[in-house]
Amino acid sequence: MASRKDGAVAEIEKKIIEAFEVFDHECNKTVDVREIGSIVRSLGCFPTEAELHELLAKVEEEEPTGYINLEKFLPVMTKVLLDRSYQPIPEDVLLHAFEALDENKCGYITKEELIKYLTEEGEPFTEEEMEDMLSTALDPETNTVRYRDYISMMIVDET
Amino acid sequence: IGTLFLKTWLALFLSLAFKAAVLIQQWYRRYVARLEMRRRCTWRIFQSIEYACEQDQIKLHNFFSYLMDHFTPSSSKERDFISRMFISGESFKEAELEKYCDYESMEVPDSYTGPRLSFPLLPDHATALLEAFKQKQQLHARYVLNLLHETRKHLKQLPNISHVSTCYSEEVTVCGDLHGQLDDLFFIFYKNGLPSPSKSYVFNGDFVDRGKQSLEILIILFTFLLIYPKEVHLNRGNHEDHMVNLRYGFAKEVMQKYKVHGKKILKMIQNVFCWLPLATLIDQKVLIIHGGISDTTDLDMLQKIQRNKFISVLRGKKRKESNKDVEIQEINGESKVEAESSESESDLSLSPQPRPAPSITNRLEFSKWLRQTVQEQIEWCRQLVDSESEPEEPTYSSVVSLTELDAQCWTHQEEWKQILDILWSDPMPQEGCRVNTVRGGGCYFGPDVTDKILEKYNLQFLIRSHECKHEGYEFCHNRKVLTIFSASNYYEIGSNRGAYYQASKTAHTLTMTQRISRVEESAFRALREKLFAHTSALISAFKAYDKDNTGKISLSSWAMAVESVLHLGLPWRMLRPQLVRSTVDGMLEYKSWLDDLAMEQRSQEHIQSSLLEVIYRNRSNLETIFRIIDRDHSGLISFEEFRQTWKLFSTHMNIELTDDGIDDLVRSIDFNKDGNIDFNEFLEAFRLFDATKYVQGGNTSKKQSQTSETVLGGGLF
User: Fold this and answer.
1) Is ipTM > 0.95 here?
2) CB A89 to CB B34 under 8 A?
3) Catalytic positions of B, please?
4) Over the stretch A96-141, which tens digit does the pLDDT of each residue have?
5) Nearest CB to A18: which of B17, B20, B571?
6) In 3D, which of B648, B697, B278, B332 has the Cα closest to residue B515?
């Protein structure tokens, strides 16, 4: 039914506006471009940095001002949510990712290895991001990351 | 071939590693973003609840002020009752004050091991006090009173606007709100050094309330003020106000710590606060005030008014009578302050508070009478305008004379607005200047107002406090306004950093996640309490969305209904997962949800649930009223006074309550048969939330350090 679908869209739009407004410090329907990542992700999406840049290109002004307008953001984000782009990463996929980095398949990755992979490969972490992840993930006694335990802990935190 | 194979395998592995890394990073960034959102939502929750409270407070006092002007007591009993409410704030005459708060006859026993002060104070006294407070010792009441007397004497000589020059002092350090958090003050002294001839300090108000060591902070600040009068400067904040202290914890703290002499101490402090300077000016270029400014801020007026007249900024209303001129003005939290400019003397400004149509059948005599009185007043005023004659009926407030009539050309009202704006305003990003409806006092001022005032007085910069900021500080208005907030962990451990706070990274004991979770827990607990307190209103709102009476509503409707009842402006859809745990087909069974909420809040079974809800929602307001009534801070009020209070309160707050309801309530409280109610016991029964709050994670004495940089070094901004 048409009205039902509209209702769903309206509800999605409300959600987006709410998330947007949390970061809209000046209450003028704009947010700093650097916060877009947080907004998109807190709406349930898991974009890569590259995908995020693509999205930004669609919502930025012709002459980038450093701010994103709700007007432009809303339709683009609505489509993202309706299309279910940037799907969540399931627990088992995450586990496989960690296992791929665990050469010897021993159930853990050393601190040095993890740092190397995550700050040199993929879409590298900043020093801050790396430190922050280590603060929860690292087992200080062995200086390793027991990734199964780490994942289970993080998944619980998510709820 | 071997090496080729190896290379291929390596290449394959590397690309696999690449992909794996991307996945992990992708996932992790999303996790961090969620945390950030949760942190901001938590922040919003605290802010909205806090501001809502402050607005209540102001509404309450507007109500009393309104009563003051329109109340014609019909019996001496009523007159006494009301007079007790309003005279309590009055300043004693000098001699009376000295007599009442006399300390010289107080003996300090030999067994007392705390610091002993002698005047004039010396730096050694300050260090002794700091040490003593670190050891959790208490200063003897005699020395407290002595200190307060001397402080008052000193402050009286100071102008309304202190001037500081950087020629004489190499460094000027500005500290924002401390709110009774002594640890923060210690830390600032530790990192920045104690006040000294080469180290000036400006403390920008809000020294007290909320934190548990407000009195210690005052003692330390006043001590340094007296030792280094040229280098230490204090500005008054909106919490340096006994009416606010009644509600936000300082009055309670003093009474708890000084059971015998607490009342005297509070009285003295009342008279010290009103003598605190209003602003500080550095090199004629940097203006430091607690709250902010408005488009009508007049520094010349501020320099000249008698600041000590304003014991409490919340009771600014007063009648001014000179010749034929009578002005009745009123500050209503909802409407703009009208200071209608008038050329002629006999102009009259009046903005009566709109009364809601009485729809409640159970109206007490009092409210009927109140309405009548309002009508009479309006009539009378209309007559005034027409006839330009003197009012015939002396109203109550002219019988109860307040402070002396000022001889200045400004009205008391205008002066009061200047001070109110300075102490209560907040900056806003948009241009213009509008009434601060959230706080109920002061303005929101825009960058254009800042520019205008800075230019008018040839200033470069504005420093203010009053608002808690994540990082302890925040620039705005093109970096012309700086907000400094010094109390770290203001709402809950982990919620914000205070400016001047720095901890080494190795001392980082809690992860970001853990910190955010704790604070979040606390915020949601507060939010659920608020939801519970509005149960009846929520049920009506939900039913409106459930036309078919299925007992279920959509989550979208839930969000809209909740906002329409609570008016907190929160992102409900973001918060929903934490508030609504179970849904059936995307629909919420609202009755059982509300039942779950109620179960969480442990309740006393023998009190009617609706009454409980009403009281629960208003308990902090009730406390304030009771404390006002209990002028001698004895903790006892008579049963009759209790009923009167309750009726007054319920009338104004539009609460329907039967006499039987009140009787039932009283019966469930233990009160001695002589007709007195120990209202501390009464309130204790409803301190459900407070009790649980301090058990979990809210222990401010165990502070966790955070990784943050010192943002502002010593030196002038």
Assistant:
1) no
2) no
3) 239
4) 999 988 888 888 999 999 999 999 988 999 988 898 888 888 888 8
5) B571
6) B697
